[in-house]
Amino acid sequence: MKVILASASERRQELLTRLIKDFDIVVSNFDESEIIFEGSIDKYVQDIALGKAISIKNNIHEDAIIISADTIVTLDGKILGKPRDEKHAFDMIKSLQGRKHFVYSGIVVINTALNKTVKESLYTEVTFASMSDEEIREYIKTKEPLDKAGAYGIQGIGGTFIQEIKGCYYNVVGLPLNKLKTMLEQVK
Question: Which residues, 6+ apart, have CB-to-CB distance to 29 below 8 Å?
């Protein structure tokens, strides 16, 4: 059966090749602002991932397994999305210095042939090392932080500033492979 990844993320696409060699990429047109954050981060990321998956399901005309995910960074219970600009990226990275924060992912897998949907979420605790303002500015000059939730990429240069993680590394990258593998088995 066809497998569809509902994501434009190159990181997710690369990670999925570790589980599935042949899949299609269909970018969801789901408007994430339709989901209102009501206090539960787990529910919030699952609802966004579900919205993306259903958007794809409603626009295909064949049976498929649809995989979607959403990943966010939280600090002190507040969501840190992608930075608006370099100043916003600086402020985000500065706020993470020497502190623990959490990276949450919501994952949804739908088997349209069986009309079976599995939703999960998980988090990873990440501790950022201290950085000087100059180090932050130099990191921002690489442009890596500008399209990443929380303004850093653990799989890139940003990984050099990570002191410790507790939980799934691939979750921080954007697609928790072990969790996804289990979910794929559940929809068969």
Answer: 55
Domains of the chain with bracketed CATH: 2-186 (3.90.950.10)
How far apart (Å, rounded) are the C-alpha atoms in residues 140 and 70?
Answer: 23
147 labelled catalytic: no
Please identify which of the residues 22, 24, 31, 70 carries the catalytic annotation: 70
The amino acid that residue 29 corresponds to is N
SS3 content of the chain, % helix, strand, coil (to 5): 40, 25, 35
Q: How many angstroms separate the CA atoms of 114 and 104, rounded? A: 28
Cα angle value 101/70/59 (rounded, 5°) = 175
pLDDT digits (tens, 9 = 90+) for 129-180: 999 999 999 999 999 999 899 999 999 999 999 999 999 999 999 999 999 9
pTM score: 0.93
Which stretch of DSSP H or E encloses residue 127? strand 116-128
**R_g (Cα) of the chain, nearest Å:** 17
Query: What's the pLDDT at 39?
Result: 87
Angle between helices 133-141 and 86-96 (to 10 degrees): 130
